[in-house]
Amino acid sequence: MRFLQSAAVCVLAGQGASAAVTADLSNPAGIKAAAKQVAKDLMSYYTGNNPGDVAGNLPAPYYWWEAGAMFGTMVNYWYYTGDTTYNEITTAAILHQTGLEWDFMPTNQTKTLGNDDQGFWGLTAMTAAEVNFPELKKPAPGWLALAQGVFNTQAERWDLQNCGGGLRWQIFPFNNGYSYKNTISNGCFFNIGARLALYTGNTTYASWAEKTWDWVQNEGLIDEKWNVFDGTNIGDNCTAKDHNQWTYNAGIYLLGAATMYNQTNGTAQAKWEERVNGLLNQTVNTFFVDGVMKELCEGGQCNVDQRSFKAYLSRWLAATTRLAPFTAATITPLIAKSSAAALKTCTAGGGNTQCGLKWTTGSNDGSFGVGEQMAVLEITQSNLVAQTPDWVSAVKGTGNSTGNVDAGSNSATADSIINKPITTKDRVGAAFFTALVLIGVVGGSATMMISE
Ligand SMILES: *[C@@H]1O[C@H](CO)[C@@H](O)[C@H](O)[C@H]1NC(C)=O
Ligand SMILES: *[C@@H]1O[C@H](CO)[C@@H](O)[C@H](O)[C@H]1NC(C)=O
Ligand SMILES: *[C@@H]1O[C@H](CO)[C@@H](O)[C@H](O)[C@H]1NC(C)=O
Ligand SMILES: *[C@@H]1O[C@H](CO)[C@@H](O)[C@H](O)[C@H]1NC(C)=O
Ligand SMILES: *[C@@H]1O[C@H](CO)[C@@H](O)[C@H](O)[C@H]1NC(C)=O
Ligand SMILES: *[C@@H]1O[C@H](CO)[C@@H](O)[C@H](O)[C@H]1NC(C)=O
Ligand SMILES: *[C@@H]1O[C@H](CO)[C@@H](O)[C@H](O)[C@H]1NC(C)=O
């Protein structure tokens, strides 16, 4: 692999100027050193391993899903760098949030639990299986079974009653956004389905992935130019679309398509290759400025959730280079250039190493937090993708995480919650939310959860 020329932004402490993260990306040791500092600053936000705190939760203002996403980044951190420093914390965090039915539906999170929120934890378990992250100790299930648990519960929620299919954003009727069908929830389901098919060879998962893609595309949530939009509301039979675009929506369909490409041949493979090419092309057109990744909201205000989205596009672009090797020539320089720019923002906070949001500016923009930190970590460690072993699922016969095809399908916990009477407060909240969507106030920015 070719590495970017050295992009050192290190200023020695004691020179009076601000310190920064040493960013010599010209060799693996330099990349790992930069990732190590960024990872350390990321984990400094995590309080779940403190006495009396709850493992797997981040403090406010971070929602539950973002912790699931963050531990996915930490699984990847180990995979790319071999640094085991955070493995124990990561394992304990994921284990604590698996829920009573081993499907990432912990009862404490009922009010924040949408299909996308559950999906991000499921993606973390899927990654752990793919990269051979050490399995949970019995009686806990294998990573594969946890991902299957998420998949199975979501397959049961496929909604033929409205708009001809698709998953709703929310799982529970009393949560705001139950009438919205969003692209990221369906993207999580599509992506996990494609990856379970690759891992297990079970074509049922691949059929679901096909079906989900088809629904999303038929609804116009992926258009003929390969733009990927935010979602649509069942109130008008999914006629109007929310046309906001986010990096993570493009990324989750890109990697899912690459995963399907990898396991097909003939005309089916040609179809997925065209989708990979189209999505990648439009991703570059939409989200990169001179090779540096940018979230569109950076032109205005990005909320706490949105500040983390570049982490997922980074993560999924890197994985795409391995499953669809013809994309590497396009993606590798984007990762190199974006990471060099991203690390230049890591000059804030007490240690002058906290990263900012706007990579295109070449300096810290005054914004920092878990999302900013996670995004810079993913893009930085992604420079190591060409020299990291393949996902075990991509090399036939090497995946050995313990699975359970029936995982999560008997979710008594979920049923008892669904059947809980809806309170007046819940109804008022839902009606208010629907009104906001209808007048276009919330729609696109209604990523993840809004309630509470
Ligand atoms: C649920 O909340 C209780 C009370 O804060 C806590 O003790 C428990 O660990 C939480 N469980 C999960 C899975 O977060
Ligand atoms: C609603 O949309 C679905 C597809 O999105 C279509 O199959 C169905 O005919 C539509 N129903 C009505 C009443 O327009
Ligand atoms: C194509 O895939 C099918 C089913 O997955 C398989 O039976 C067949 O051997 C493959 N053909 C080639 C040329 O790889
Ligand atoms: C890539 O995007 C450009 C600019 O929109 C467009 O002209 C071209 O047809 C696209 N190529 C593919 C393969 O989609
Ligand atoms: C599928 O992924 C593996 C692992 O990266 C790769 O070696 C193989 O070439 C890919 N298959 C195709 C058809 O590109
Ligand atoms: C799976 O295989 C890897 C080596 O490829 C090994 O390190 C790991 O312990 C195995 N896991 C299980 C659950 O057998
Ligand atoms: C394939 O997955 C489906 C869906 O979970 C399951 O019902 C079926 O038993 C699986 N088949 C095999 C051979 O494991």
From TrEMBL:
Catalytic activity as recorded in UniProt: Random hydrolysis of (1->6)-alpha-D-mannosidic linkages in unbranched (1->6)-mannans
Highest rank taxon of the organism: Eukaryota
Family annotation (Pfam families): Glyco_hydro_76 (PF03663)
An annotated GO BP: fungal-type cell wall biogenesis
Annotated EC: 3.2.1.101
GO cellular component: endomembrane system
Record-level Gene Ontology MF annotations: mannan endo-1,6-alpha-mannosidase activity
Membrane spanning residue stretches: 428-450
Keywords of this entry: Glycoprotein, Glycosidase, Hydrolase, Membrane, Signal, Transmembrane, Transmembrane helix
Segment forming the signal sequence: 1-19
Location in or out of the cell: Endomembrane system
Similarity comment text for this entry: Belongs to the glycosyl hydrolase 76 family.
Protein name per Swiss-Prot or TrEMBL: Mannan endo-1,6-alpha-mannosidase
Organism: Amylocarpus encephaloides
